[in-house]
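Chapter summary example.
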Amino acid sequence: MTLTQLRYIITIAETGSINRAAEQLYISQPSLTSAVQELEKELGIVLFYRSGRGVTLTGDGTEFLLYARQLYSEYEGILERYGKSGTRKKKFGVSTQHYSFAVKAFVDMAKEFDMSKYEFAIRETKTAEVIRDVSTMKSEIGILYLSDFNRKSMEKLLRSSNLSFHHLIDCEAYVYLWKGHPLAQEPSISFGQLSEYPCLAFEQGDSSSFYLAEEILSTNDYPKLIRANDRATMLNLMVGLNGYTLCSGIICEELNGDDFAAVPFKGDEENRNSTMKIGYVVRKNAILSKMGEQYVRALRNYLETGDNKDERKDEREMDNE
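The structure predicted for these 321 residues follows.
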């Protein structure tokens, strides 16, 4: 087994394709396939499932990838410190559910570093992929939430992925909609009031569980439901179709603009409001990098002492005038 083979495996896993990996690695596809087969034979395991759509990791492959990333990361660190050029960029990644504040904190963090010396990545993605990315060290930090509804299942999933959850803030659920919506000026909104408008939810994949949903009340039977897979599309649907979503209500106007409002969700006996415990996940016993430490500080600064509380307060004052 060589470091070159480890790099091959990591690149294939990241691209999900032998052909795309070969292009990035500047080698031929047959040479890359041969190298993988030789490593699989040496290890006595199968690393990838092959199909017409590409490749995916097997169970053994997922476990091997974790160790491969750790080892190759150490190798890159040695090159950075002792290599002749010393120009290899350090990497830092965040995977998150669709939160604008997570992006805002990332922007604030990146400004503190010379970006010519680092390779940064932020991935707004599905809940399961947030967990997978951090578990496999594709990202150092993940952002997600726990609630009374999903806590047991999520904590079990985090334990099995060797991840720990670190609390950042508690939020009651809000109805998030555009300011031109007929209900935008209400002091609070009940589930019944929302029945004639489409509920917007982030797509979690065909095999996803209700427990992986980013929105509360994910098991409800919505008369109108539209799924989207990115935040920009979600905002467009709010404006175009008077759609809404149930979320934390933390709005970053700097990134999302000032055309949207967060109105408190008014729960009832059947549709109770739920406290969302937002936090970050990392590998157990992990020591955060300098970028990771700065990112967590930026998150706490924005969520605990920063602008988002003033934004929500200003919105409520405007709504009640």
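To summarize the output: Residues 59-82 form the longest helix (24 residues).
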